[in-house]
Amino acid sequence: HPAHFWGLWALICAAALCTVRKLQSTKVMQREQTDEWKGWMQIMFLMYHYFAEVEVYNAIRVYIAAYVWMTGYGNFFLYARGKSFTVKRTLQMLVRLNLLGGVVCITLNNEYLLYYICAMHTFFTVIVALVMYIKQEVNKSAKAVYSKIFLTLLFTLLIYDGPSFIFKAIFGIVPGVRPLFAFHDPLHPEFTDEMHEWHFRSGLDRFIWIVGMVYAFEVARLEDLMQWIEALPSVAQRSAARFGVAVPALIALAFWWHYFFRLDKYSYNKIHPYTSFIPITCFLLLRNLLPELRQRYLWLFAYLGKFTLETYIFQFHIWMKTTGLNGSPKFLMEWVPGMYYVNFALTTAVYFFLSVRMFHVTVDMKDVFVPEGTNSDIAKRFGAIGVFLFGCWLATFAIIER
């Protein structure tokens, strides 16, 4: 019921407003701000699934684009420093992104792409890392960086908008790669192409991570703009300058809302890859326009924003129930028959507790999989884990035979 959805959302926002925290710095795009951003988007994303509130579908598409934007922004920003091109850091990042999803897939015999967020963030993260690693000595040059970004854009256009055999050749033929991106959707048997789901999901946000890279490279200009505004001598001048930033942003947002956001689901999906940068850009400008806003964040949303990966995966199996093998979360979990609110309270409490707990487990486990030491030490650890997993795989045949 829409009243349940919006009523609960209003209560959550009211609770979050009671958790305002103040930072020492007034810099733009601080970590607490991005965690806050992830937190409130994730809550609405989860509620969209739980309450089946299809009316907010287009907004959810924008939220997912914002997550992918952060993948491009965050990784570019990190790699631009030139200190993260190590085997250890790369493998730890990949383990963190995929450990929980991989374990759940193996345990429940689901395909990896059921949790497509893991695949999308992994793929785009690897591409950003490669872009920054190749000829990394020129990463301080604007001309060189934009040349890299332009080539990345051409590569993306070729994959997604070029002849279909190119996409299938990259993702659907290589033996070790195909099983990761193939998906057989039991709810849509009409999709006989096993690459359809990956093409659709990743294609919707195929450009926004590149926009994130551009913004990461130019974020210093946004910082300079805000500092210039703050340095203006009078209140009237500062107000006029902020007005000059806010009004174009609001006009652009209103234009996007009127001509694009109000479209039906299928029409919106067609233009989403080319327009999702508009609301993201406007939000960033407005969120960072005042030093009072930059210096404050909502702790509740920032806290929950740390566990987006775990809450995304566990919504399938703890907060809700799927339709079966490779199934989407279409049913509500019922522990106490006939008591909706009791079930909602119980499952939500357990769901968030386990999500937080699993976050800490995977953070610790990435150090187990990828230990301190040389690349040789890391290789030995992966070899030992591989032997152990192979032994477990062989043991399953003995168990089945018995």
Tell me about this structure.
With 402 residues, the chain is mainly α. Helix content is 73%, strand content 3%. It contains 18 helices and four strands. It has helices at residues 2-17, 31-50, 57-79, 87-108, 116-133, 142-161, 164-171, 178-181, 196-204, 208-231, 235-261, 265-275, 277-287, 291-294, 299-304, 308-319, 340-369, 375-401, and strands at residues 20-22, 296-298, 320-322, 329-332. A two-stranded antiparallel ribbon has the order 1-2. The protein has a two-stranded antiparallel ribbon with strand order 3-4. Strand 3 (320-322) and strand 4 (329-332) form a beta hairpin. Helix 6 packs antiparallel against helix 10 (208-231) and helix 16 (308-319) packs across helix 17 (340-369). The longest helix is centred in the C-terminal third of the chain and has 30 residues, at 340-369. The radius of gyration is 23 Å and the shape is globular. The protein starts with a helix and ends with a helix. 26% of the residues are buried. The mean pLDDT is 93.
